[in-house]
Fold:
Amino acid sequence: MAQSPTRSRARSSSKKSAGEKGGAALGYARPRTYEELRAVLSSGTVHFPKRLRQVAIFLWQHPGDVALGTISSVATQAGVQPSTLVRFAKTFGFAGFSDFQEIFKEHVKGSWPEGRERNGRGRGRPTGTNPNTHFVNGLVAASQASLGRIEAGFDLDAFERIVAIMAAADLIYVIGSKRAFPVTAYVSLALSQQGVRNVLIDNVGSTAFDQIGCLGERDAVLAVSFSPYNSITPELVAAARERSASIVSITDSTFSPLVKLSDAWVEVIESDFAGFRSLAATLAVGMGLVNGVVAARDV
Structure:
């Protein structure tokens, strides 16, 4: 039986209201730009279940992939089902993923390194035919993208606050594990070479909590952590916070558990290639902090 025009319009109106209800139910209007979406995500007012949080972290870190991918490719990269992306989009009042994707497309036009490279305006490193050369070139390109992102949108005010906190500390504790450990080990070495007293928390023999046992309120902690944030680092930082130490951190999204524990933090998002993620930008920021601390102490 054919539906009456009145009933059809009523159902259409109901669907529209449901689509708009997502944003309204969360207490804000539907974001019109990527920057507005980031502002909502970083506000701390939205609490996602596990899968939607996983989507939020991926969208935060990879806007270029979201803008230029299909729903299937984005879902695969984010490690979720396509239906989860649709559910996430509807949470913010969008009709579906394609509608939601438009704000990412507008964002990457000529702004982010990913967008420029995928549109053929990148550095265009030759790939060659040797698979090893191709892999090296891929990692170099990922490093260039990471460094370009720092150049395009680094929070200099937060960086300066971190430098000031570290420079004023009696002793600096440097904490990072798994993929972040090479960064913290190099930062600790560089500080030591410049005569800045510090302790590298390396957790040898599972002694990390003992290593921070003497930490006091005149000390500072520099923590480095990346998603999926399943290392011991957040627990150590929480213990340091209980001892009233100053906390500064380098991490890769507003969803990092370090953010709420930190007096200041900077965001560094590293690109990856073939499952291997660059550390180039994080190391650059770490060395910048060392240089800043030494300069501040020499004043």
The chain has a mean pLDDT of 83. The chain has 15 helices and seven strands. Residues 10 and 253 are 41 Å apart (CA to CA). The first strand starts at residue 172 and ends at 176.
